[in-house]
Structure formats: structure tokens, C-alpha cells
Amino acid sequence: MMLANGTVLGFMHGDLPASLRPASRSWQSGTLLVACGCALFAIQPLVPLAVSVTVSNGLILLGLTAYCRSLYAFYERKPGVWLPLPAVLGTLGVFWFSAIQPNTEIRIIIISPAWLVLMGNSALILKRGAGRDDAMSRRMLFAIFASVFLFTIVRLLHYLSLGMATNFSIADDASRMNLATPMLAAILPVIGTTAFVLMCSERIRRQWERAASTDYLTGLPNRRTLTAAGTERFKAARAQDESFAIAVVDIDSFKAINDRHGHDVGDIALKHVGARLKSATRGVDLVARTGGEEFVVLFDRVEPDQVEAAAERLRAAVRAHPFAAGTVKISITVSVGVAICRGEDADFNALLRRADEALYAAKSAGRNQVKLAA
Q1: In the Cβ-directed half-sphere of 182, how many Cα atoms lie within 13 Å?
Q2: What whole-number distance in Å separates Cα of residue 140 and Cα of residue 129?
């Protein structure tokens, strides 16, 4: 099952986005390494003890290291330089106490902390990922790592309590723990791989949702998101008798910037204006780019006598900060049309049309100013 899961993940690798392929490749490597290590344990009577114990434990430790590296890559974090050390030290220790001074108890004492460090670190990475990813698959994978981590502690304490002889074997059926270990060892490569694939699927779904709701250039909400949010806030304002206002912001003479400096500079200018508008609003307000050089700001719970001042802050924030692109430095201004929700507004689109009319009035009056809709 481990080999099958690793192979299936290999076939899926090419269908994943480039950002997820490093994590997928590391997880596949981990699954195949653990599978090979377990397979070598299964044929232990056919291979010299020093070879089978050392190589199988080394492969499993490398597999756990690959899982840890995969999770670092998934959350776009850089692993520490210490990451290979548990596998290296654990493998060397197992080799010494199987080939030089055979002692099963000391081998278990050496290998268990190495497992715990790698699995504990993987669980910690998943725990810290909760801020970015609240998917059930992440919680499931965290539970798997935590469960195997706790089992490893119980396993270590169990074997220590037995008072093992130096030639004690963990590959026969003399102890129930000998039977439980391979069953638990299969959880990460089999069920864990399924959870990891679901994590990748969930990440892709969120990326598509973000792409569908976000302006590709500025990272601000797009027209689709604006319409949905505006409709919802319009209804809430009507139901709760709260004030609701919007501002339509348009960059003055934007075509001249594109014509004179090129579209690349124009794109930088759009991102600059979006950032300045965002900096001049509160956390509850929404700033969206609706296309071209036009932006819309939803003012949430703002008093009618404060709306014009809030819109003026938008205009001033852009005017006060010229933007630079290489050697090009341009002072940009915006015109702003503002509309406060009135009883005659049938829906959000009606409010938006009135703000548009106020914007045209600001343009006609000479640009770089705020006009309030009648």
C-alpha cells in the first residue's frame, strides 16, 4: 500500500501547480523510503542483522526527514540546517549497536528520539500552518503525526520496561508491541499520503477562489467581489438602518502615463494607487479595482457628515505620494465621486450609478477633487 500510494502520487505530480511540486516530490520520496525500509524489515531473517537493521532504520529516518521537508516546502518555509542530523546520528548509532556492539535496547533508545524529533517537528509545522490553512485535511495530518509521536513514546517505555536481553528481537511475534509497530508505521505513508493529497487539493481550490475574486495586478478585490460585498452591505444597512456610502476613484490622465511611459509603468502606477487608497481606509472598508484605472471604496458604518472627509483622505493620500519606477517619477492625482445610500436607491447598482455621476462631475470641474452626489 505504501509503494502504491507513492507511485500514485508520482503520477499526480505533473498535474499539480509548480508551487506545490517541491512538497509533492519530497512527500513521495518519504513514502517510498519508508516503504523500502519496512520491506527490508519484513525480509530481515534473509539478510545479515547489521545490514537489515541499519539500512531499514536509515531508510525510515530519511523518509521521516523527507516528510518534514515536504511540509516546510508546502508552507513555503526554509528548513533548518539541522534537519538531516536525526537521520544521520540515528543511522550511525543503529549501525554501531548492531554491527560493532549488538544491543537491541540501546538501538531502540537511540532510534526513538530521532523519530520523535522528526515527527514532532512535522506536527509543529502543521500546527503553525493553522493561521494560513484551516482545512480538515491539515488537522487530520496533524492528528496522524501526533498519534504516531505518542505511540513512539509508549513503544519506547514499553521496551524499556521489559529488561531486554542484548539479542532481543523486535521482528518476531514475541511481543504485542512487535505486532503493533508495523501497523502504526503504515499510518503515515498510507493514510498520511491521502491527507497530504487532500491538503494539496484544498490549496488549489483556495487559489482558484482567490483568483476568481481578486484583481490579478493589484491584489485588491475585483468587480465580482465588489458587487457581492456591496449588495450584502447595502441590504444590511437598509435592514439595520445604518449609514452606507461608496466612493468611485479614477486616476486623472492615466492614458497619458501609458502613452508616455509605457504600459509597464502604467501597471506600477495602478498598484501604487491601490496601495495608497488601501492605506487611507479603515480595516472595515473595502477597496476594489473594477477595471482600467477605476477603483471603488465601500465605506462601512460611516456617518453621512464624515463621508466627504473620508473621500478627501483618499484623494490626499494619492496626491501626497508621487510614485517612482526606475528613473521615472510621476505625481498622480485622482478624482473621486461619492454617494451616500438614500431611500430612493433601489439596490447597490443604483448607489454605484450615483457615485459614477459624481465622479464625472469631479472630472468636469477640473479633476483632482471630490464631488458628493446630489
Answers
A1: 19
A2: 13
Count other C-beta atoms under 10 Å from residue 243's C-beta.
Answer: 16
**Taking Cα atoms as reference points, which of 81, 110, 114 lies closest to residue 95?**
110
Among candidate residues 232, 344, 229, the one with its CA nearest the CA of residue 296: 229
The separation between CA 99 and the C-alpha centre of its own chain, rounded to angstroms, equals 45
Cβ burial of 81 (10 Å; 0-12, 13-18, 19+) is exposed
Can you tell me which residue has the cell 483632482? 368
Residues catalogued as catalytic: 293
Domain range 223-372, CATH architecture: 2-Layer Sandwich (3.30)
Question: Could you tell me the residue ranges of all domains in the chain?
Answer: 2-212, 223-372
Spatial distance between the Cα atoms of 28 and 266, rounded to a whole number of angstroms: 44
Which contacts of 53-58 are long-range, i.e. CB under 8 A and separated by 24 or more positions? 53/94, 53/98, 53/107, 54/91, 54/94, 54/95, 54/98, 54/99, 57/90, 57/91, 57/94, 57/107, 57/111, 58/87, 58/90, 58/91, 58/94
Q: What is the DSSP code string of 100-114?
A: IS--HHHHHHHHHHH
pLDDT per residue as tens digits for the range 215-265: 989 999 999 999 999 999 999 888 887 788 999 999 999 999 888 888 889
CB-based contact 340:282 (threshold 8 Å) = no
Instruction: Using the predicted structure, report yes or no on whether residue 352 has a pLDDT greater than 70.
Output: yes
* Contact present, 299 and 285 (Cβ < 8 Å): yes
- In the three-class reduction of DSSP (H, G, I as helix; E, B as strand; rest coil), residue 125 is classed as helix
Q: Please give the grid coordinates belonging to residue 43.
A: 525480509
